[in-house]
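Suppose a colleague, Dr. K., hands you the sequence of a protein chain of 356 amino acids and asks what its three-dimensional shape might be. Before reaching for any lab equipment, you can write down a predicted structure in token form. Begin with the sequence itself:
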Amino acid sequence: MTSDRTSRPRILTGDTPTGKLHLGHWVGSVRRRVELQDSHDCYFILANMHAFTTRVDQPGEIRSDTLEIVRDLLCMGIDPERASIFLQSEVPAIAELTFLFSMLLPFNRVMRNPTLKDEIKVKGLGENYPFGFPLYAVGQTADILAFRPVAVPVGEDQVPHLELTREVARRFNQKYCGVGDKVEDADHVEEGGVFPVPVADVGKVGRLVGIDGANKMSKSLNNAIFISDSAKQVQKKINKIFTGRQSPTEPGDPDNVLMQYCEIFIPDEERVAELRRRYAAGDDIGDGHIKQELGAAVNELLEPMRERRARFENDSDVIDVLKRGTVEANRATEETLAMAKQAAGLGFFPRTLRLD
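The predicted structure, expressed as tokens, is then:
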């Protein structure tokens, strides 16, 4: 780890291991994480305990998915020498803070979280979800605040979760640190609060539509282009994008999913502008031609990632990255936990945590 990291503003974000990462993750959050490595003290969590909220009977798959996501992060450009990738399950301070924070939030406030409501609906859980499912929304506040970050790079759909985190930070600082309820969010630490009130850092593309053209890109909806897809798989998926257009001379919708992808993934802005103009005018340019250009651009983006991924084929190399990151994560979170315990009257004596 570089020696100057601790003098930089800190960020925390991460992923629940539910499968491989896709282009939606790249444009929504990971690209921003890569950019921030040079200017911020970066921590990236693998929320493997949260995965158990809906997959408690799949521990083997969760473990495998965790390792695959680490490979995806490394191949996309996360550098373990400049950032810490770590396991939620190996950072006990997060669990302790989850319990403490759960005392600060009414149950009905947790259940009003729109992201939580959406997940219950999308996953068809009805009333048959474990107590840990709503608790994970509280746990996510602990994932974040355990690191006292100033910002959280997230996709658009995670902003409601962050608002809950911001509420917890305010309530803790007001209840246990004497911060006044009129104090601006940016001034909480200066006024004696333990926790900064973190802000959302949403990527340039807050929500990427899947190749079905209707829903957010998702593994479960079978509409995703994965970071680990081969060049052939990428082109095949892009070819499936449906626009409803019948001929090259038929004017097309310049804002449909195909053209959205061109704006996002074709780096030549002049070429994109030309494609949009000709597409909207029905100027003898077919969907098939555009899909070939788009496929080439996406594969140009992914090819260096495929090469980097090949360096981490062995699980032992991935686990070594996780172990080093988890050591750094425990160092940061134990400091936060000691501060929080002291503020809440729970700090009776110091402790030392060691990861062998």
